[in-house]
C-alpha cells in the first residue's frame, strides 16, 4: 500500500508538471534584472551535499531527474560525513544524502528550532573490502580487519586504507570495532575514493575500504585499475554460527543480510518549505528512482515490481 501511494503521488507530480499546472512556475527577476526560477518541487536551484562514498548513485539519479525536470537545477557537492553534518548544523546546507540519520544529540539542534525533517530511506549499500589481484587470498575474516582497527597486529591483514579520516566508512568501521579513533599504525588514509582504488592496485597486501557504489559504478577512467582488483569475500559469524562462509557484497547478499557490512542510505531534508529538496526526495524513493538504484547494483528500499499483461489467445 505504501509503495502504491508513493507511486500515485509521483505519477501525479509528473503529470501536473508536464501539463504546467503544478505550482506557479513564473519567472521572476532579481535586483540586477536577471531571471530567477521560482523554487517548487520540480523547479528552481538548490545544493545537495552528498557523502563521498555514495556519490556515484546520486549523480546517476540526478542526471535522469534533470532530464525530466528541465527547470530544476540541483548542484551536487560531495563531502565527507563530518563535513556534511557540520554544514547542516551551521545552516549552510538544508538537504543532504548520507548513509545514516542524525543522532539524537545532532537532531536536538533542529528540534529546538521546531524544524521537523523529512528523512527518506532510499537504498542499502555495502562497504567493500578491496585487495590487489596479485594477492592470493580472495576472502578475509572480518575479525582480522576489526583487530587492526583496535590496534592489534594481524598476520593476515597488512594495512587498511580509507579515503579520508572524516569518512563515513571510517565511522562505520570504528563503531563495528568498538573503538573511538583510528590506531597509530596499520591504517592509512588517502585523498579520496579514486585514490583508494589506485593505492590498492599498486600495493599488494593493502586492503581498501570503500563504498561498493564506487566499484559497480566506477568512472570509466578507473576501469583499468578495477579490472586488476579483487573484491574480497567476508565472513558473517552472526549469520553462519560455527560454519564458516564468505560472502561478496552483491545485491542478493545485501538483501538477505548475508554480507555483514551494509548500511541504509537516506535523504535528509531540513528545508522549511515544499521545495526542490522534497521533489528530489520523492523522485529517488518513488518507482523511477528505485529502478535506477536497482540497475546500479545497490539494493533499493522498495523493489520495483513488473506488471505483465497476459492476453488470452484467440
Q: What is the strand and helix layout of this fold?
A:
Blueprint: H1 2-19, E1 27-29, E2 35-37, E3 44-51, H2 55-68, E4 72-79, H3 81-89, E5 95-98, H4 104-112, E6 118-132, E7 139-140, H5 142-149, E8 159-162, H6 168-177, E9 187-189, H7 193-202, E10 206-211, H8 213-216, H9 223-226, E11 229-231, E12 233-235, H10 237-240, E13 246-247, H11 251-256, E14 262-269, H12 276-285, H13 287-296, E15 299-300
Parallel strand pairs: 3-4, 3-5, 7-12, 8-9, 8-10
Antiparallel strand pairs: 1-2, 5-14, 6-10, 6-11, 6-14, 6-15, 12-13
InterPro entries: PBP_domain, Phosphate_ABC_transporter
Domain PBP: 39-281
Protein name: Putative ABC-type phosphate-transport system, binding lipoprotein component
Describe the structure.
The chain has 314 residues and is α/β, with parallel strands linked by helices. It has 2 domains: 2-124 and 263-300, 3-Layer(aba) Sandwich (D-Maltodextrin-Binding Protein, domain 2); 125-262, D-Maltodextrin-Binding Protein, domain 2 (3-Layer(aba) Sandwich), CATH 3.40.190. The chain contains 13 helices and 15 strands. The protein has helices at 2-19, 55-68, 81-89, 104-112, 142-149, 168-177, 193-202, 213-216, 223-226, 237-240, 251-256, 276-285, 287-296; strands at residues 27-29, 35-37, 44-51, 72-79, 95-98, 118-132, 139-140, 159-162, 187-189, 206-211, 229-231, 233-235, 246-247, 262-269, 299-300. Strands 3, 4, 5, 6, 8, 9, 10, 11, 14 and 15 form a 10-stranded mixed beta sheet that branches. The longest helix has 18 residues, at 2-19. It is globular, with a radius of gyration of 22 Å. Mean pLDDT is 87; it is low at 14-26.
Amino acid at each position: 500500500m505504501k509503495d502504491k501511494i508513493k507511486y500515485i503521488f509521483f505519477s501525479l507530480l509528473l503529470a501536473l508538471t508536464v501539463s504546467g499546472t503544478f505550482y506557479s512556475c513564473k519567472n521572476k527577476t532579481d535586483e540586477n534584472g536577471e531571471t530567477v526560477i521560482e523554487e517548487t518541487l520540480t523547479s528552481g536551484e538548490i545544493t545537495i551535499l552528498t557523502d563521498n562514498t555514495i556519490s556515484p548513485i546520486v549523480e546517476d539519479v540526478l542526471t535522469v531527474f534533470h532530464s525530466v525536470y528541465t527547470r530544476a537545477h540541483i548542484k551536487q557537492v560531495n563531502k565527507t560525513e563530518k563535513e556534511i553534518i557540520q554544514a547542516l548544523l551551521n545552516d549552510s546546507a538544508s538537504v543532504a544524502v548520507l548513509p545514516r540519520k542524525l543522532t539524537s544529540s545532532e537532531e536536538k539542534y533542529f528540534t529546538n528550532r521546531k524544524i521537523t525533517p523529512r528523512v527518506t530511506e532510499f537504498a542499502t549499500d555495502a562497504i567493500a573490502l578491496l585487495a590487489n589481484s596479485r594477492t592470493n587470498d580472495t576472502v578475509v575474516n572480518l575479525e582480522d580487519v576489526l583487530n587492526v582497527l583496535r590496534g592489534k597486529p594481524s598476520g593476515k591483514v597488512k594495512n587498511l586504507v580509507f579515503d579520508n579520516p572524516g569518512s563515513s566508512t571510517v565511522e562505520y568501521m570504528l563503531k563495528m570495532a568498538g573503538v573511538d579513533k583510528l590506531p597509530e599504525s596499520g591504517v592509512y588514509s588517502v585523498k579520496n575514493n579514486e585514490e583508494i582504488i589506485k593505492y590498492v592496485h599498486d600495493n599488494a597486501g593493502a586492503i581498501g575500504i570503500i563504498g561498493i557504489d564506487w566499484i559497480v559504478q566506477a568512472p570509466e577512467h578507473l576501469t583499468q585499475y578495477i579490472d586488476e582488483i579483487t573484491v574480497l569475500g567476508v565472513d558473517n559469524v552472526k549469520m553462519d554460527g560455527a560454519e564458516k562462509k564468505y560472502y561478496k557484497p552483491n545485491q542478493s547478499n545485501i538483501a538477505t543480510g548475508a554480507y555483514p557490512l551494509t548500511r541504509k542510505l537516506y535523504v535528509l531534508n531540513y528545508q522549511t518549505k515544499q521545495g526542490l529538496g522534497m521533489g528530489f526526495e520523492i523522485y529517488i524513493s518513488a518507482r523511477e528512482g528505485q529502478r535506477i538504484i536497482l540497475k546500479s547494483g545497490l539494493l533499493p528500499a522498495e523493489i520495483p515490481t513488473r506488471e505483465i499483461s497476459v492476453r488470452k489467445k484467440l
